[in-house]
Amino acid sequence: MNIMLFHSAYGPRPAVRAAADRLRAAGHEVWTPDLFDGATFETVEEGMAHQDAIGKDELLRRAVLAAAPYSERGLVYAGFSLGASIAQTLALGDEKARGLLLLHGTSDIAPNAAVDGLPVQLHVAEPDPFETDDWLSAWYLQLGRAGADVEVYRYAGAGHLYTDPGLPDYDEEAAEATWRVALGFLGTL
């Protein structure tokens, strides 16, 4: 499978490279575009300030430019938090998308979004300050109405970015469970 994996607001941290290596070891081809020009951050607040300074439109432009050379292959879009939001936007706009793997994040869904059975898997903490229960319920229903085949996995007690061992949110048990399920999902695409 060809996977375009986008980093979180923390930037292209070692955990993103480690995730890409894990996916490659499972036989996938993986690209990890750097949307922040190498900048990484120690706090989510710093990362979000940098994200805001770049702007949503520019981040999406960078992501589209990174994915464009590979989209003909039929990409699985994936990402962490902010990167998941970007991955979702690109996947819903790419008729050749093979799947969508969201780790720790979602995004708004355009009212006219339409996909034909796009496989989507979301892994998110429970509770998650950025992905509230009400938001996730509405997101799930909207994506289903758009034609996606959606699976949601919640991890009680885990922090927001629980798959990154370099952050305080890290939860080894939840992270390993996420990767087991996600690799199984990718294996079906």
From TrEMBL:
Spell out the molecular function terms from Gene Ontology. hydrolase activity
Q: Where is the Dienelactone hydrolase domain?
A: 3-188
Stored Pfam families:
DLH
Which EC class, in a word?
hydrolase
Swiss-Prot/TrEMBL keywords: Hydrolase
Domain of life of the source: Bacteria
Question: Any idea of its EC number?
Answer: 3.1.-.-
Is Hydrolase there in the keyword field? Answer: yes
Q: What is this protein called?
A: Dienelactone hydrolase family protein
